[in-house]
Structures are given as C-alpha cells and as structure tokens.
Amino acid sequence: MEQEPTVAAGTSGTSGAPVAGWASGPLGAVQAADREIARQTAVRARAVAEFAASRPASVDRQPGEPGAMSAERRAARPQVLADVSEWAAQELAVALSLSTEAAEQLLTRSLTLVHRLPGTLAALEAGVLHVGHLWTMLERVAPITDDAVRARTEKALLDWAADRVTTPAQLAAKARRLGLARQDAERLLQALRERGVSVRPDRRDGMAVVESLLSVPEAQAVVDVLGRYADALDDPEDRRTRGQKMADVLLDLVLRPGESRLPPVQAQLTVVAGVRTLAGGEEPGEIGGEPVPAEMVRALARGLGLLAPAAAGPADTGSTGEGPRPGHLLAQWEVETSPPETWPDWLRDADERWWAEMEARVLAGGWGGEEDPPPEVRQRLWDEDVRGAAQLRADDGGPGAAHAAVPTREGERWAATESASCGAPAPAPAPAPAGLWPAAHAAVDEASLALLALDRAMNRASGAVDRARLADHEDEESWRRSPAGRIDAAGSDLAALVAATAPQRAALAELLDRSGGGTLVDRPRIAVVDELTGALLALTDARELRRRAHCGRPACTRRPETCEHDLTGRPGLGPPPPTDGYRPGAALDRYLRARDRRCRFAGCRRRVPRGGELDHNTPYPDGPTSAENLTGFCTGHHRGKHQAPGWTYDLDPTGTLTVTTPTGLVAQTEPPPF
Length: 674
Hints:
This protein is mainly α. Helices cover about 50% and strands about 5% of the residues. The protein contains 26 helices and twelve strands. It has a three-stranded antiparallel β-sheet. A three-stranded antiparallel β-sheet has the order 10-11-12, with no helix packed on it. It has a two-stranded antiparallel ribbon with strand order 1-2. β10 (about 650) and β11 form a beta hairpin. The radius of gyration is 35 Å and the shape is globular. Residues about 1-15, about 315-335 and about 390-435 have low confidence and may be disordered.
C-alpha cells in the first residue's frame, strides 16, 4: 500500500500539504524534494545575508582615500550592497566556486529577500513558493520604493498564489496587473523608447533568434498577422508546421516584400477595458489577453478612431480649478525666493509647524537632546569663529592679515553680510610680522570657510530634496482633483459613471453604439461582471441593454428612458441559452471565449484557439451544448482530456473545473476574473 511521502524534519512539509495535495509513489517524493530545495534556498539566503553583515563597507577604503572604489562603480552597485564590503563577493565566489559577478548577484538576491521581501522568504521556506517564483517577486515587487506599498503588493500576490496551482508565468501576469495600476506615464514612455530589434545565437548549431521588443498591441498584431498568413497556406502537400510557415512568411514579408501572392490580412485583437479605463482612470486593461496600462488601451482606441483625441488644457485641471498641471508647481514659485504669501495654504501650514517645532526646541534648552546644533546655530558659531580669526590676525599684525585681505567670492559675500549686520566697515589689514601663529590662523580660517561652504551645500541639497517632495505632493493632489483622479477613486464602474463628466459619458455611449466594420471586426460588447469576484455574468451590447431596460409596451419601446413600470418577471441578462447541435451558436461561442479566454487546465496560459477547442465536459449528445457544459482548452490539453489515461475532469455549473490526476492530485481552476 502506497503511503504519503516522508518529509525530512524541519521542512515545509509540516506546514501543510501542497495546493494539489500529496501525490502517491515517486511523484510524492518529487514534491517533497522540491519543497526541500525551496527550504534550503531560503536557508542559504539567510546565511548569505548574515555573512554580508559580517563584512561591512566601513572596513574598506573610504571615498577620497587612495585605492578606494571609484565613484562610478559605487553608484552602479545595487542599493542593498551599499553597506557591504566590495570584497565580500570575492570571498563568496571562492567559497561557492562562482564567478565574482554571479556571487554579487547571489548577495543582491539574498539581501533583497531578507530585507525587502520577508514574506516571500517565509513562503519559500514553507513550500508555498518554489525557486522559479522568486524572479517575479525580485523583479516586480522588490523595486517598489514605498515600504507600505511593497508589503501590500507582496501580501496580495502571496495570498493569491496560496489558493491555487500557480506557475511562475501566472504569478508574473498577476504581478504585472497589480503593478500597472497608477503606472507612471514617464515609465511607460521610457519603455516605449527602449523598443528595438536584436539577434542572439541559439543553442542549436547554425540557428539564431531575432528578438523584437514592441508594445503589447504591436506584438499581438504581428503574431496574429503571421498566423493568419500561415493558415492561408492550406496546400495539402505542404508538410511544414504552423510555426515553420509563420517563420517563412516573416522572411518573405521582410526580405522579399511585394513578391508574395497572398492577399492582405487584417490583424484581430481583443481589447478588454472597463469603464474606469476608458473614462481616464488607471485601471489596467487587456489586449490579446495580456494586461496593459490604461493609457495604452486609450491610445490604441484613439489610434483606431474609437475614442476622440485626448482634450488638452482645461480638461486636465481639477474640478475645483485649484492648482496647476502636475509638474508645473516649481515653474510658478520657488520656496527659497518666493514670498510666503504666494505659497499654497498647505505649504504655509507646514512652514509654520516647522518654526513652531524649532521654537519649542530652543525653549527646551540646549538643542533638544541632539548632539549637534541646528544649522542656523552652526552658521552663527562659524561666523563668530571667522570674525575672531580675522580680528586676531589684525591684532597680531602678522602675514595672515594680508592673506585675509585677499578677496574671494565666498569672502566677499561674507564681508558684505557682516558689514550690513554690524553697521561698521571691516577692520583694515595691518602689517604682517613673521611667525607661525599667523599661518595657523590662516589654516583655521580656511577650514572654517570650507566647513561653511559644506554646510551651505548641504542646505542647498536639502532644499532641492524638499522642492522635489513638494512637487510630488502637488502632483498627487492635482491628479486627485482631476477627472481621471475622481474616476479612479470610484469603487465600481457604476460609481465611475456617476463621477464621469457628461462628455465622458457621451463618448462611452458613442463607442458602445458603434457597429462592426472599419477598424472593428465586431461591434463592442458589454461584459456584465460580479463586482466582488469579477466573474462574467453576461455578455451583451448597447442595443440589448436598451431592449431589456423597459417593460415592452409600445410607448416605452419608442422611448425606453421614460419607462418607470415594474420590470419584475421580464427576462434579465445571463449566459446565452443552449444550442441545438454539437457546435455552439455564435452568441454562446462568443460568451465562452470571453469567459475562459485562456486554457482552463491548471497552470496553462495559452489562449483558446479561434474556431475550436471548446470541450463538452459530458460528451454530446448525452450532455448539452451549453455554458454549463463547455470549457475552453488549448489544443494540447484538449487532447490530454480525451486521451490521457486515468485523468478525470468535472465542471460544475459555476464554471469551476476540477481535474484529478492518476496519482490522486486535485487541481481546481475558475474562469479568470475581469
């Protein structure tokens, strides 16, 4: 009798079974080994971080010392290595037989997991994640600078992955969707600037890979067009695979343009966008099943003539009329040069709070417990030192007096300040007798001026940081007041419609009233979804909504917006009815492809192919051709459902698919939420 695999003491096997359960026989041993690998990876990360802590950067030569790390290399190092000796990677490389570059990458990953992604490290140790999941967390979550936002994003991803069989690709897609909300426009613009084409050698002799970095709609359109050209090559004697045909079509179109006899084809993309996305919010959309930023969806819609061009100027200002466009704050006033009466109310309040705090510290005595005085006290003390040194040189009459009389830009500015504040001219230089004291006084003077210049530079840097923070604050406040900010703050699409302006609602209505033709293969459809779960409830259009929104009486049919009759008993919205026959009708086919979108097998992200692969869970004619009995698969997993021995598939009326393997593992998938 086969038993559950034994897991070594202290491993994650004690913290709960995998999502799919423990398999019997050798496969269970594979699961246990995979969890142990994950646990040991976490143990190694903690040990590497502990080793890094024992090799502080303070023991290295510091900037300015001979042989110290160059400023360029110091700036290029990852932030998590700032406090780690530059020689730690070298020592780790020797210990693990790695290159120095690989050892530095291991240091970076380990410190990032320990200090920036503690939840991910714990999940790795518990077996919820495996090593392949780490790249998504390191690349998508760790770079988030705000600690609170990073922690929330990490927790959301880990909670989502803990409830289902999750591949690294699925986790990456989920992370992209979370990260696209409120994506900075500059980041999107920078990504577009990095588009390009490159070539690299392949591991197979004589082959190479051509890579093209494009936006999602461009890439989806290119692949769709190549596929349509390949499908048009239907010669029964042609033994090439579809992928080989697509490669040959690409070569013909690029290297031999105009020589192909194939008729032009039109790329078809499926765009999924919510009300908040189209009305100017930051809710991500989908193009060809891939999450994309809201602005990219709107740009595509404008490019296809589906939305009017974005309005400029006043439309971008908040409804209150207050505040400039984001980023224009510092063009109107500067904190250091503009009078306080020109500052915004919130800035004046912050300035008053700061001065109140400073007065409280002064009244408390000393410097409020600080080891160093505040900047203005240090300034006064240094000024007194400089004045004392100059007076001492004048009294001594040494050569230092002549040196002090030589004007410099910093000295001239200081002398002018002193004359204005003291109301008396600077003392005249006296003859300079020989001796060591004047030289010492000159050295003290130069050191004092250097410290003064350093402090002023630090104050200027601090002011620049403050101005940047003020600009960010005004940017955020201006965005919140804008129409897009109000729409994005809406808790639902219905609330977003209420918050939208009349022109925005009119533009949406015009888009939904369009018919197929031109840039649209089919007229726009409206997905009615459950606001809590995102499950698709119905797929309709503007005409059907108007038809269902009245009682059916002739007067209300002519003017449905005036109908105030009770609609109880009238047919509502829902999945299309079953189809007579084996193949689903057009409405049912469209609904199922919108509901499933990707292959429903656990962990698969392939698209459901056009024109096929909708499977009857209970074979026809014993089972109906209905939404409750049909599931979308990719070609490979559709074959596996019918041909792989020992597998069972069960589809419940809600669309949840349960798959049981021959070894007893159970995986459930639900239609992807909108």
